[in-house]
Structure formats: C-alpha cells, structure tokens
Write a structure and sequence with these properties.
Blueprint lengths: L8 E4 L7 H14 L3 E4 L3 E3 L9 E7 L5 H14 L3 E6 L3 E3 L6 H9 L20 E6 L3 H6 L3 E4 L4 E4 L2 E4 L11 H6 L3 E5 L11 E2 L2 E6 L5 H16 L5 E4 L8 H11 L4 E4 L17 E2 L2 H10 L6 H12 L8 H15 L2 H15 L10 H14 L14 H17 L5 H11 L6 H23 L26 H14 L4 E2 L10 H8 L5 H14 L11 H13 L5 H15 L10 H16 L1 H31 L3 E5 L20 H12 L11 H15 L1 H4 L6 E3 L2 E2 L6 E6 L3 E6 L2 H7 L5 E3 L4 E4 L11 E3 L10 E7 L1
Parallel strand pairs: 1-2, 1-18, 2-5, 5-14, 7-11, 14-15, 15-16, 17-18
Antiparallel strand pairs: 3-4, 6-13, 8-9, 9-10, 12-13, 19-21, 20-23, 21-22, 22-26, 23-25, 24-26
Helix pairs in contact: 1-2, 1-23, 8-16, 9-18, 10-12, 10-15, 11-12, 11-15, 12-13, 13-14, 17-19, 17-22, 20-21, 22-24, 22-26
C-alpha cells in the first residue's frame, strides 16, 4: 500500500488545447503551491477530438493530440525536475469504437468472432446471427439505402456512411450485385440510431453506444490494457493509480487483486460511488475511493438540518404541490423506470433473452414469458439501493446477501403483479446459488447493469428533477438526507480513518454537478429559509407570463434560480449551455434522445428574459452581496476541512481560487495560471491573511499544504488519529473542531451566515494539553486550555493550530 508521502494531488484536465507541454509549464507553480503529485486525466490515445480522455482507442501509445510520445517524455522529465510525483488515470472498463484508429475494433468488424481481438470486447456473439449491431444511421436502414447514402469504397476496402468508415470483410465483394448484398455479408449490421434503445449485442458504458465494454477479466486483455500504466509504475514514473469505473468490470474484487499484485506499492484509489452507510468491501486491496464520500460528508455539514421542514415546504409550494409533491424516493423510482424503458431497454432485453433460454428447460418457470421476465428485472433494477453487488460463484458476503434480500422484497412491493416465483428465481440467481453457467452469466451481467441504472436514473435524471436544495444533488450524495449534525460528521469521519486513512478527499472533480464554491454558496440558503422562500415565490409570480401556456417547468425554474444564486454573476451564454444539459438530463419535456424544440426555445427565451429583467437582476445582486462574505468563509472552511481531514486531498484544476464552474463542459474551461502564479508570489510574501477577494483561497491552500508537509505524521502517518473536540457556548453548533495526531487542531465554521452577521458570542473550544499556535495568525500569541472563537475574525473565523510545546 502507499506510504505517507502523498501530501496532495492536483487534477489536470488534458485536452487538445492543453497538452503535455502546457502541463509542463504549470509544474513549477504546482511545486511552489505545495502539491506533491500531479493527477492527470487519461492520456493514452483517445478518439479524435476527445476533451476528457476516457474514450481510449489504443492502450499502447500516448495521445498524439496531447503531443504524443515525445511530449509525454518531456512531461515525465519535468515531473522529476520539479520533484513531483504522478497519479495516472486508467480506464479498464471500456474503449471507444467511434474512431477507426481503434485497430482492435477495426479487426473485429472485418473478421467477426474469428478475429484475434474478438475476446477483447464484451460482445454476445450468439445473439443477432453473430453480427454486431452498429446503431449509427440517422434514419431507418431502408431509407438510407434508398437514398444511396451508404457507399462501398472497393479501392480502400471500406464501407462509407458520411464521416463513418467500416472495413469490408475479406471476399465480401465477390459476386455481390448491390450495396445491400455486400452489407449483409459483413460481421456487423448498420442500423438506425434508435435501434440502440432496444437492440444491441454488446455491453456499453452506461448508455453511450460508442463506448464498448472491455473483457478485462481475461488475463491477456488485462495485460494489454495495463501494459503502459504498469510500466510507468514499475519505473517510478507514477506512484499512484486512479481506476475509472471499476463497478463496470465483471469481477471488481478479482480485478483489483490482480492490479495490486502488479503494483504492490502504488497508491490505488477507485472511482466508486458509495451510498450513505455503504462501505468498500474490506477485502479490496485499495487505498480508498476518489473522494465522493468525503465530499458528501463535507457538503452535508454546511446544510443546516434544522431547516429541512422550511425548505421542503418552500420547494413544494414553488412547484405547486404543497401537500402531495413527489418524495425524493418517488422521484428516483420514476427516473429509474424511465431510463430502464427508454435508455437502457436494450440492456434489459439482453438479460431477458438470456433468461428465456434458461427457464425454457425449467418445468416450474418455462410458462413465464418475456413480459414476466422484463417486469422482474425492472423491479430489481428499480429496487436496488446501491450501485451493485459483488457476488462471485461460491462467494456471497453477508452485506450482499442483505442487499439482495431487501432488493427482492422491495421489488415485490414495486410490482406486486409480478409472479413471486420469478422474483424468487431471480433472487437465487443474484446470490449465484446455482451451478448452472448460464444462470451465473445472467447474475454477472445483472451486476454490471445495476450501476448504469443507478447512475442514469439518479445522477443523470433525478438530480435534475428534484430541486429542493441542489447543493445536495451531487455525485455520491443522497439529497433526501438534508444536512448533517456535527456528531454524525465526527462518527462518519472516525469510521473513514479506520477503514481507509489514505483515501482521496475531493470537493470538486471533473464529474461534479457544480464546483465546491457554487455548492457552498447554495448551501447558505439553508440558513435563510424565510428570506429565500419569499424571494423565490416573488420571482415565480413575476415570471409567470414568461412561459407559453402549458410549457412552464417549475422544477427547472427553481433549479435555474438556485444556479444563478450559486454562480453569480453568471454570463447568460454559460447559463444557456447549462440549461441545455439540465433540461435534457431531466427528461421531462425534452431529452437527448427526443429533443422538443418548442419547449427548449421557451426555456431559453425564459433565461433571456431573466437576463434583461432589471428588477430581477437587482434583487439577485442584492442577495448575492448579502451572501458573499459568508460564501467566502464557507468555501475557505470546507477547503480547510479538505486539507486536514483524514486522507489525501485533491485540488481540481483552478479551484485554488474561488470558481463558479457548473457541470461539464463548463468545468473544463481554460485556467488562467499566470494569474495564479502572480497571486501565489504575493501570498508567499505575506504572513497575514489577505482579504477574501484578493487570493484568500490560494493563500489558505498554500499555507495549509505547507502545514501538511511539515506535520505529515499527524495527518497521514501511523499516528494520524482523528479526535473530536468539545465546543461550548451559544454558537457551539455552528462550528466543527477536531484534533489530528498529536500536533494539529482544526476549528472551522459551518454556519457562516450566522457567524458573519452575529459573531461567536461566548463560544469556545477546549484544547488538548499543551501550548498551541494558530498558523493562520502570525500576530496571535500561544494558547493553552481553550480557544475563544470570537478571536478568529481576522482569520476567516478559522483556526489551524500546531502544538508548540507539551
């Protein structure tokens, strides 16, 4: 396992506009900031134009659009010269098939299941006549064929459809008299893009047709996928590995054991979404997750749980359902049902087809048909409370047994018309309580589908439909849990340090719905429910005539208002881009599959009217001005927590300054590193905290990273304990205080709006024995016994104390 030299990671999003050489130019700044390891997005060869790198097409070469092998060598050399380590991001679950540069896929299309690369991809060769369905046509196949839009390039041995290219099978032109006849001889079938909604015979990444599942459980495939990455680890070029979407592979535990054996000393973290109360399987040989669980704990701390009733009433009143508005659980269930029938229907159908073949020989079950099985699978996928189980033949953990039992019981309640015998059989299959290879295959496939059902149903649908307080609508969070008490935070953190003390701690990532600072500002609304309710309802009333009859979406409108509060001042162009994603992900009046031009025009017109509504803009600016001091304190407070809680903190590119980023692609905008270099130089030259609007976040980042480097043993070493500290006084519930190891005490405000407006009164923190000094305040003297929080006004109401003597 990894040692304690991981001070902090810094995430860089590499793109064709920000490649290896651009990253080299940033490294001296990151070293000066105090970063220990650079953590890049995937940089093996990806599909042309990729802005994220997760659509890999070749695991053997560095991405040419980032500069290729020579530029990568310069980047690796610059890391060494700047005494920086590296965490590499690997993608074991899938590859892109959108680019002909994927030579393995090209060979499979040319030769079918006889290709040497056929074992590489997760294809059901026994379905659909042994041909791979490629749902790429803009219109039904016959219409495209009649318009002569598919052509045969015999010179290059290719099929052409506009920008798409596909290989011709050897000998398939011999004696053919038409384009259709040639196409029928191929190992693939070109189909209308909507065909993917109900007919596909390969595993995808979620619902992305161009990302095909990889059979990394095969030893040769594992070796091919990981060859370069593991060589970098072995050579000391990389010290850490971030594993993308391990829930997608067939056997995550087996995969991670193999990875650990190949990289025994690497810091390995996995992108695993844990539901509240869920833990990583203890036998997994990893250092932790990529930090969504820590982000959920931090965010929840800044949402006042006492205000749940008031903000729930505000939301229900706004959307016009004062008494019977849908609960979060109802919204999740409706969203899952929607994606299972419209987005993931082909994946469910594949399980149904496999099951029909199995039950045909079972006298108890053979009379059940396709509809019975589809309903049973739908019930299970809707009822599953976590992303997936991890059952393998002969291995069923107590936790997985519990999850399966509750899922089957919940499924019965969701769809009481489903015959209990079908669900009983499905529960048996899910437990792999069988020796039938076909049933084991069904169970494995189902485990690979529950994650996409959860992700598409919750993260990519519910989070855009349920807008009670969108600061809580974040990856890894459960918005039905409204905030957290300090006691609950302490308990969860203590458990985390016991289980995975070297886990990553994140507050912003490339996948978060909004930046940490936007989230912190929206969370402040939980401190002012009455003011927010009055303002939101006034906006609702004033804008009633801004929508055409029958098109107004109040949930979307409520989301827009919160977004404007969180990211103020937000340029209208960026809001329009965000609006496109928000309303299509919600899948109510429009969607990516079935866009409704009339509704979308109305929604964009509504946003334009907000932009020119002087009264609205004045009220929004007034609210923003009221929130800004507290929002700055909230951001700095959660930053202090991230940099001192158990684990390895990650800083997402650019977020060392206050950022107003929303969901991708907004969070992948270019970062002004020259500004940050200048501010860092000024920060180095001053010991006292700067004003909030003058690089305060970067100053605090640099100061606390220096603390992390000097007090590594207390924060990451074997003595890195976590001890809650007692807080007393009128505003005791407005702060969190804890000790780390023997030498660190942290005190951070969690109700900044209250504190900024009213102060700390008589609130104090009882300190451990010894003499302490606040590293954020060079003018303060030593402390013993207790800390009066009223003394922290000049340090953002924060204290990070180091022991000066026993």
């Amino acid at each position: 396992m990894a040692d304690s030299r991981f001070i902090a990671t810094y995430r860089l999003q590499l793109t064709p506009d920000f490649g290896f050489d651009d990253a080299v130019a940033v490294l001296p700044y990151l070293r000066s900031l105090g970063i220990s390891h650079v953590y890049c997005s995937p940089y093996l060869q990806a599909a042309a134009g990729s802005n994220h790198g997760y659509d890999v097409i070749d695991h053997d070469i560095a991405n040419r659009e980032l500069g290729g092998e020579e530029a990568l060598a310069r980047f690796h050399a610059a890391l060494r010269d700047n005494d920086l380590g590296q965490v590499i991001d690997i993608v074991p679950n899938h590859m892109s098939i959108a680019d002909p540069g994927n030579h393995r896929w090209w060979d499979v299309l040319a030769k079918g299941r006889s290709s040497d690369s056929a074992r590489f991809f997760d294809i059901d060769w026994d379905a659909l006549g042994g041909r791979v369905v490629l749902a790429v046509l803009a219109d039904p196949y016959g219409d495209v064929l009649d318009r002569n839009e598919i052509t045969i390039d015999s010179e290059h041995g290719e099929v052409r459809y506009f920008d798409h290219r596909f290989p011709l099978a050897p000998g398939s032109l011999d004696g053919a008299g038409s384009v259709h006849e040639v196409l029928e001889r191929q190992h693939y079938r070109l189909a209308h893009w909507r065909t993917a909604q109900h007919t596909l015979n390969y595993r995808r990444f979620f619902d992305v047709n161009t990302l095909i599942g990889v059979r990394v459980e095969d030893d040769d495939v594992f070796d091919a996928v990981h060859r370069r990455a593991l060589q970098w680890v072995a050579d000391g070029v990389a010290q850490g590995v971030r594993v993308d979407h391990p829930d997608g592979v067939r056997d995550p535990a087996g995969y991670l054991r193999r990875l650990r054996e190949a990289a025994p000393d690497a810091w390995i973290v996995i992108e695993k979404i844990l539901e509240p109360g869920e833990a990583l399987p203890p036998e997994w040989p990893v250092d932790g997750t990529t930090g969504y669980d820590a982000m959920q704990r931090i965010t929840a701390l800044f949402v006042d749980p006492r205000r749940e009733v008031a903000l729930t009433r505000a939301y229900a009143t706004f959307i016009g359902h004062s008494d019977d508005y849908p609960s979060y659980a109802q919204t999740v269930d409706e969203s899952k049902q929607l994606v299972l029938r419209r987005v993931l229907a082909a994946d469910v159908a594949r399980l149904v087809d496999m099951s029909l073949r199995v039950i045909a020989t079972d006298t108890r079950l053979r009379d059940f048909g396709r509809d019975d099985l589809r309903d049973a699978f739908e019930a299970v996928l809707r009822a599953m409370p976590v992303y997936r189980t991890y059952v393998t033949p002969g291995s069923l953990s107590a936790e997985d047994a519990k999850v399966i039992a509750s899922t089957i019981d919940h499924g019965r309640r969701l769809l009481p018309h489903v015959d209990g015998r079908v669900l009983d059989w499905l529960g048996q299959v899910m437990r792999m309580d069988t020796t039938d290879p076909a049933e084991i295959e069904i169970a494995a496939r189902l485990q690979q589908l529950t994650g996409p059902a959860m992700a598409k149903g919750v993260e990519d649908t519910t989070f855009y439909r349920y807008s009670r307080l969108v600061a809580l609508n974040e990856v890894g969070s459960d918005p039905s849990h409204f905030g957290s008490t300090v006691a609950a935070f302490h308990a969860e953190t203590a458990l985390a340090v016991q289980q995975h003390p070297m886990s990553m701690v994140s507050t912003t990532t490339h996948d978060t719905k909004r930046s940490e600072d936007v989230r912190a500002r929206i969370a402040l609304l939980s401190e002012m429910p009455q003011t927010w309710t009055e303002l939101a309802l006034r906006w609702k009333a004033r804008h009633a005539d801004r929508w055409p009859d029958g098109l107004r979406d109040l949930d979307l409108e409520y989301l827009v208002y919160q977004t404007l509060v969180g990211a103020h001042p937000l340029p209208v162009e960026r809001l329009h881009t965000y609006l496109d994603k928000a309303m299509r992900e919600a899948k109510r009046a429009t969607s990516w599959l079935d866009p409704d031009d009339r509704f979308e025009r109305a929604a964009h017109a509504f946003v334009d009217t907000l932009d020119i509504d002087e009264t609205f803009q004045a009220e929004l600016a007034e609210l923003s001005a009221r929130l800004s001091p507290a929002a700055g304190i909230a951001s700095l407070s959660q930053l202090a927590l991230k940099l001192t809680l158990p684990g390895v903190p990650d800083i997402y590119q650019g977020s060392e300054l206050f950022t107003d980023s929303l969901v991708d692609p907004d969070n992948r905008r270019a970062v002004d590193y020259q500004l940050r270099r200048d501010l860092l130089q000024r920060a180095v030259d001053r010991a006292d905290p700067p004003p909030l609007d003058d690089g305060a976040k970067l100053w605090l980042t640099a100061r606390l990273l220096d603390v992390r480097r000097k007090y590594t043993d207390s924060l990451l070493g074997p003595h890195a304990t976590y001890e809650p500290l007692a807080v007393t006084g009128q505003d005791a519930d407005a702060t969190v205080a804890f000790g780390r190891g023997c030498d660190i005490v942290v005190v951070a405000p969690i109700r900044p709006l209250r504190i900024v407006s009213g102060g700390w009164h008589d609130t104090v923190v009882d300190l451990p024995a010894g003499t302490w000094r606040n590293v954020l305040d060079p003018t303060a003297g030593d402390l013993r016994g207790r800390l009066e929080l009223a003394s922290l006004a000049n340090t953002y109401h924060l204290a990070v104390l180091v022991r000066t003597s026993a």
